[in-house]
Structure formats: C-alpha cells, structure tokens
Amino acid sequence: MSTKREVLVTGASGFFGGVLKRRLLAEGFAVTNIDLVRDEDAGAEGLSSIQGDIRNGELLKRTFAEHRFEAVFHCAAMLAHDVKDETLLWTSNVDGTRLLAEAAQAASVTKIVNISSNCLWAEGFGRPVTEDDAPAPVELYGQSKLEAERALAKLVEQHPEMRVVTLRCPTIIDSGRLGLLAILFEFIEDGKKVWVVGDGSNRYQFIYAQDLATACLLCLEYEESNLFHIGSDDVPTMRGMYESVIRAAGSKARVAQLPRMPTIAAMQLAHRLKVSPLGPYHYRMIAESFVFDTQRIRRELRWEPTLTNEEMMLRAFSYYSENRRAIHARTDVSAHSKAAPMGVIRLLKWLS
Predict the structure, then answer these.
(1) Which residue ranges does the chain devote to CATH 3.40.50.720?
(2) Is the pTM of this model over 0.70?
(3) Count of alpha carbons within 13 Å of 198, Cβ hemisphere only?
(4) Please, which residues bridge with residue 207 across strands?
(5) Environment class of residue 203 by beta-carbon count within 10 Å: exposed (0-12), middle (13-18) or buried (19+)?
(6) DSSP strand E in 222-350: where?
(7) What is the rounded end-to-end Cα distance, in angstroms, of the chain?
(8) Angle subtended by helix axes 238-249 and 309-327, to nearest 10
(9) Alpha carbons 215 and 217: distance in angstroms, whole number
C-alpha cells in the first residue's frame, strides 16, 4: 500500500499546473491531474492523469472516492485570449471552481489552494496593491476569477472546517511560458523593434513559477484560510527589462516608443474588430505600473521570491529561442504553452 501523500492538481497539463505537478512528484507526492488537455507527463511514476472536465460532477465524485487526497491545488482556468465562447470561460472558471470545492468538502478534503490573478484590477494604484484593496475587473476573465474567489469564500462560511488559501498572482514566468510572451520573444529573436507604450517607465511585476510552487507547498502546512498577494522583488521598468533581455540574447532588437493615447485607442479598435489577441485588461494596463504588496505572505508563510523579472524573462526567452519551430507547430496544449496568434500585431512587426 502506498504511503505517499496524495494531492489533486487541476489544470496540471497547463504551464503552471505542470510546473507544480512536477515539483510535487519530485517532492515524493502522489499527484492526480484533471485537465481538458492531454497530460504530456502521463505514465510518470506517482502520477494519475485524467483528461476530463471539472464541471463534470460525477467525474469529481468518482475521483475523490478513488483517492485519499490531502489537498486540492486548483490551477485550471480558461483564458480570455484562448477561448471564443464566453459561456465556456465563465462556467469553467466559476461553476468549475464551485463544483470542485463542493466535491472536496463532501469527501472531507478540507485544504484547497486556489490560484487567482492580478487581472482583478485594470489600473495602476501608484503604490503596491494590498489584499485589502477592492478588486475592479474590467473583462470577463478577471470577473470570473473574482466570482470564483467569492464562491470559495462562501464555502468557507458554510463549512468552517474548510481551509482555503487563494494566491493572487501576476504573470507567471519560467522556461516554457509562452502565450502572449511568444509575440515579444519573436520580435526580439528577429531583431525587430520592441515597442513600449509611453516612455516605458512603468513597472509590471511577475512571479517565478518555482517561487509560486514553493508558496503552494508552504500552504499545505498552513492551518488557516487566507488570501495572499505574491510577486517578485525589485521590479524594473518595462524598458529596462526589455533592454536587459535584448542584451543577454545578443539581439539586434531595440526598444522604441509608441505614443500612449493613440496606441491605446488603436488597441481598443483592434479588440472590437476581433483582430488582436489583446483585450481590455491589456490595453488598460500596457502603460500602467502594477505591483502587489507581498508583506502578508512573507509574514504568514515565511515565503521569499528568488528570481527577478529580468532573470525569469531570460529563462523564458531562451526556451523560446531554442524551441521556436516546435513551439509554433503546437496545437493540443494549453494557452500558456503555445504561442498566441499575433493578429494585427503582425503588421507592427512588418513595420519594425
């Protein structure tokens, strides 16, 4: 009989879910993955892979009955730039979260670690954003993540034995992280101008995937419900970060400026015409600064970040550069594990 600690990870075929899954396996856990996308690690020792939908109540009930999970790590989410069906996005992110939590509670699994997002806001505060700042999402993805948080909070109110920890994350970066970043990396790789909107002095925080995985592991030993903001230290300007990656890559690319107001207006129009992968969150935040205050997670979990924005971005760029051809041929993978379509941004590349 196995003596391994068992955990469920939703979305473990995706980018961060996959990082967490492999970290847990390396730490000696038995891991079950539920994901709509096939699991490229299927068959690995200690891993059970289920290709299925977390909105399927019978599947959840059967899965919890067949295992003795210590905790659930909820990483699964539908992203706005990868899903055309808004109902699918909403039901996956909101109803899926609620059904998962209810199934865990019914099976007496009392620990849930929920991965949430900084997309709950779409404006800069001029200061680090704390857990006490009221969210104000402007697009469906952020609204769905907020509603999922509320569903979990309601469950805790109804069942005080439940311990739910939500980790609100900025963009998660590591080797293998692609999605919209692949557009930036293609510009750098091809020596094109890398554009900032405004003067590029805005600062936008990231989180290293392994640092987030460390926080998830620390949550296993945390005996309360809580909400934590997480992110990197010493956040550089966007211009400074791009220039650092360009130098390290030995690229002929250079950073160039676009005028703020006309560019944002053009992005809004491109979104309405459905010719751009960038949505309201992106055109609202592209010239803004956004940094999370991480004092609470440092205090409560004794967590510290290990990589800077520049270091993690260089890892992600190096992976893209070494695997570019294979990356652009990918189809049946999660949104963050493949290159996002450029759409009208291709025109900007031609002009660069």
Answers:
(1) 6-172+205-229
(2) yes
(3) 16
(4) 172
(5) middle
(6) 226-229, 254-258
(7) 61
(8) 60
(9) 5
Q: How far apart are CA 144 and CA 315, in angstroms?
A: 30
The CA distance from 263 to 288, in Å, is 13
Whether 22 and 64 have beta carbons less than 8 Å apart is answered as no
From residue 209, alpha-carbon distances to 13, 44, 223 in Å are 15, 21, 23
Please provide the CATH number assigned to the domain covering 6-172+205-229: 3.40.50.720
Contacts of 92 (CB under 8 A, 6+ apart): 53, 54, 55, 76, 77, 78
Handedness of CA 223, 228, 232, 234 (dihedral sign): negative
Distance of alpha carbon 7 from alpha carbon 20, whole angstroms: 11
- What are the phi and psi torsion angles at 312 (to 5°)? -75, -35
Cα atoms in the Cβ-side hemisphere of radius 13 Å centred on 177: 21
pLDDT of residue 82: 65
The 10s digit of each residue's pLDDT in 33-48 is: 999 999 999 999 999 9
Q: Where are the beta strands (DSSP E) in the chain?
A: 6-10, 30-35, 47-51, 69-74, 111-117, 163-169, 171-173, 193-197, 206-208, 226-229, 254-258
- Cα 287–chain centre separation: 20
**pLDDT on residue 79:** 84
